[in-house]
Amino acid sequence: MPSPYLPTLYKARKVPTKQVVCAICVERTRGRTQLVRLGYGVAVWLCAGHGSREFQVQRSGRDFVLTLHQLWQAHGCLTAARSKALSAHLESLRAANRRGTPGSYAWPDLRRSLELAYARGTATGTAIAHVSRAYEAGPARPPSPRTLYRWRAERRWLATPATSPPA
Asked: What are the CA-CA distances from residue 22 to residues 49, 77, 125, 154 (Å)?
């Protein structure tokens, strides 16, 4: 026969009584809780473990978001603001993990001008020296010499008619 005892906060032992319990741990809360603001006017009290950055970004934030989403849904308090806050949390992590455009694709004008130079017979060493001089003081790092060799080896100018680079 199953035990008639079900866990509640009323009889829970070792639960801090002078502070709010963790929204995730509830009756198993240990230590201090902290208020974590998620945006859209949404804030939640979490223990040190659940409030940590490590937990919030674990599995691209899906553990954190799914846990809070299902808790709020079970309690009947999943509001539009809470849903937006959880979506924004996931999106912020996606944006942080998004890679920028790889080096050779971030320099399309340079690539076109070098391909024109290659089509006219310019040596790769000369192109590398020109790129190094032109961009040595700039804030951005130009494509590597290996990339410039690859651009020459791909010979894309043969497939498309040679045109002058955009001014």
From this structure: 10, 16, 63, 58
